[in-house]
Amino acid sequence: MNINAQWIVGFTDGEGCFHVGINTNKGMTLGFQVLPEFTVVQHQRDVKVLYALKDYFGCGVVRKNNGNVLCYRVRGQENLSMKIIPFFEKHRLKTSKQVNFRKFRKVIRMVERGEHLKPEGLDHIRKIKQLMNLK
Amino acid sequence: MNINAQWIVGFTDGEGCFHVGINTNKGMTLGFQVLPEFTVVQHQRDVKVLYALKDYFGCGVVRKNNGNVLCYRVRGQENLSMKIIPFFEKHRLKTSKQVNFRKFRKVIRMVERGEHLKPEGLDHIRKIKQLMNLK
To answer: Is residue B27 predicted with pLDDT exceeding 90?
Structure first.
């Protein structure tokens, strides 16, 4: 399947999600792991578009979510910093997902600088997260 | 707002809907009106993308749907036949919405030929409609 950058932007404006998880993890300095991820969810009948995204970005996984729903998911500092963020910087989202994207990028940059390992940095990330993906 | 064809295809693959309504209408020959429509629904915070679609296609309306949800809607044989269908013929959808689009186009063509005014044509349209937008 042939997809191009603007189709990906349009599809992400519709179906994409920039999410920051903060999970308890005793192995981490502060007891919490910051887990940013870019996801796109689809019914299994359209799994081919999820694999097309995976091919395009050259990273991420396609996994079963719930029932008949599958998810393309990109995690990992390098994938997000070097592939996902530069793509959406070059090809700007048209909906308010652009606002989430900017917050997501801010968190990625903070994690790059190790700020999530300090209490004030982690608090700052929590506050950014609260303002993301508001219904 | 600047949107291009591939963005529209991607966004429609995510958020668009090709729908055929069949409503009772005593003014019609068989007592039913066939009402095909192309719609895109968004939260009001992203109403600007709905107006961008309206500008791009040069037809349709942006209306309140429910609560904070708005809808870009194109009805009318001429708008659908001359604008919406040629656009998605030229710029093919990537998801299974392409299957719905083909069924939708078939209904539009039948209505063009007046087949919805004959009982067997209306029955055929009902059967096509049953196979559209399956969950």
So the answer is: no
Q: B95 and A49 in contact by Cβ < 8 A?
A: yes
ipTM: 0.93
Q: Structurally, how many domains does chain B consist of?
A: 1
Contact A46 B95 (CB under 8 A): yes
Our CA-based measurement puts residue B109 at a distance from the nearest CA of chain A, in whole angstroms, of: 27
CA distance B15 to chain A (A): 6
Domain of B43, in residue numbers = 5-130
Which residue on chain B is closest to A52 by alpha carbon? B94
Query: Strands A32-43 and A61-64: what pairing?
Result: unpaired
Asked if the structure places residue A135 within a domain, the reply is no
d(CA B48, CA A63): 33
List the CATH number of the domain containing A80. 3.10.28.10
Cα–Cα distance for residue pair A57/B52, rounded to 1 Å: 28
Q: Is residue A109 part of a domain?
A: yes
Which tens digits make up the pLDDT trace of A20-57? 999 999 888 889 999 999 999 999 999 999 999 999 99
